[in-house]
Amino acid sequence: MLKINNLHASVEDKSIIHGLEMEVKPGEVHAIMGPNGAGKSTLGYVLSGRDGYEVTEGSVELDGADLLDMEVEERAQAGLFLAFQYPVEIPGVSNMEFMKESVNAIREHQGKEPLSAAEFLKKAKAAAKQVQLPLDFLKRGVNEGFSGGEKKRNEIMQMILIEPRVAILDESDSGLDVDALQVVADGVNSQRDGERSFIVVTHYQRLLDYIKPDFVHILADGKIVKSGDASLAHEVEKSGYSFLGKKYEEAEA
Amino acid sequence: MSEQIEQALSRKYDAGFYSEIESETFENGLDESVIRRISAMKNEPDWMLQWRLKAYHAWLKMDEPEWAHVDYPKIDFQEIAYYSAPKSMKDKPQSLDEVDPELLRTYEKLGIPLHEQEMLAGVAVDAVFDSVSVVTTFRSKLEEAGVIFCPISEAIQKYPELVKKYMGSVVPRSDNFYAALNSAVFTDGSFVYIPKGVRCPMELSTYFRINEQNTGQFERTLIVADEGSYVSYLEGCTAPQRDENQLHAAVVELVAMDDSQIKYSTVQNWYPGDENGKGGIYNFVTKRGLAHTNAKISWTQVETGSAVTWKYPSCILKGDNSVGEFYSVALTRGRQQADTGTKMIHIGKNTRSTIISKGISAGRSNNAYRGLVQMGPKADGARNFTECDSLLIGDQCGAHTFPYIESRNPSAIVEHEATTSKVSDDQLFLCQQRGMDAEKAVSMIVNGFCKEVFKELPMEFAVEAGKLLEISLEGSVG
Questions:
Q1: What is the ipTM of this complex?
Q2: pTM of the full predicted structure?
Q3: Is B449 on the interface with A (CB under 8 A)?
Q4: DSSP letter for each residue of A42-80
């Protein structure tokens, strides 16, 4: 479903990703771990088409279509979702309004009728309940005055409503307590249907106790240096990135 | 991003068409004889002519104000025609059937339904085309309630006592350069009188349209709300797209008697000029309301048009416990310049005022808020709250805030908050990542920014204002 071939990308002329290969099949969960500065967040931005993240070589296919040829919103409409590490605030625009625009823009692309206000409200209420956000969060401005944990849960709520083909979670676990971590993981697990795929970017193994990955990749120096199953994450948790060499041992200390 | 913004902001002005209507237009130029001719065309009584002439002589001695944060070539007042009227209006139509169909089509194009049968929304409209009022709808229903809503030229004939008493009582003839000019040459506008204790049964609305080339539009609106009455009034404005600048210098006076309330809303979409600043309307307007005891005056404005705007709808809070409000959204793009804000003059005890101003600048435009809050020596317990927010789109525009606060009463409380923000790349990216295109995203972000003001507009106009912003921002990002 998502095929990344020999991807090279740079930010402000600085090469961050060089020669990344990865294939995500329907229903799979891939975890990406790696030391700081390895290019983990960059990967999410490159795939979603953010301005300033320039692909210099390689190709990415989503369901056979050339992802890199699409505009940001077209990638989203094609089913790519990015849960942000630091979600931005949009004052005055209610969460409800924002999500309705989003869901209906994607439905329009799929040739579906837009959801009516009542239909949407019903779905939104259910999603809010699922991520344990009080209903007044639907009326509040997008991320306006939300705590860090509330912002992360809000991202997951959007993911639930959008039902993407591939969701990239960029450190959705950072700064969360165990309860919030459970909520985020439940959000993802509830979406696993054997068709949807997930790329979970994380620093810590603990999220992977809740979201069981099919594959774990170690990203370092802009490429995947090691891949394995869930046990690789435990290995990293125990002994750090020492296998990558001295440089990373110190950086993680 | 900014290059794309600029490119995209050069969108078409929707109301920029010109209507082929036979007009009777004065030759350019202004002197006493022109004023006498205007007065004669309108069949005015002598007192009105004398009033105009006094204003004219005062104007001759005045200078154009130069303190505003705007820059435009000096206006040659002899190069303007001071009167233009559709020819068919000479024998004023008695009903809509007699109105030139081309004129009706013009209003239809603007989305202003004049046919009463279509007006189930229940909004009474007075339409002013160039210098004359063409038609006022829903008159009989208003008359039943005792409400007077008619062109001001007609009010001068029919209700001279009311006009004499109140015209110039809030904005004196020689108040300022443009008000004096308007007082001398005003051609039409609306007059509203709400009798004691009456709640006006529908929204009242006036649409102003400049059609002819090189004409100025000088309309004058006078609204008097008698004791305990209520009225909500909306004005809308458009003009054809032309290379020359055109002058619009209006005066609006509101008189809110004891316990009454006036809500005055404006959706201003005069032609703003092209992306290089060629053409467009100079919008130099004086708007002021006088609030007596327990009265309330609310100004709500959505300003998206005009090349240069110079406008400060104000409240004189004379009576004890009177309330003044100013809610404003001003959007500038291309080379537009806006210097707008309000004055809240607190005279009475326990007077209260609220100012919410939202300025949005895009392209290479300049947007300034200028506001005065004055607490007089007798204004015990008076309060003001001001919130002044600026939103920048792109990196070549300017936002400026000039708040003036004068307090002569130690018990008065004045609060001022100001913020400046940008439509950030992060916000845009979030919206796009959620499947929305950039245009939709910007318009949603800007609408969110303006929400506090839009909620003050009458329902159907809030929708209109939102759409207008959307059109104005069309393609503002790529």
A1: 0.93
A2: 0.79
A3: yes
A4: HHHHHHHT-TTEEEEEEEEEETTEEGGGS-HHHHHHTTE
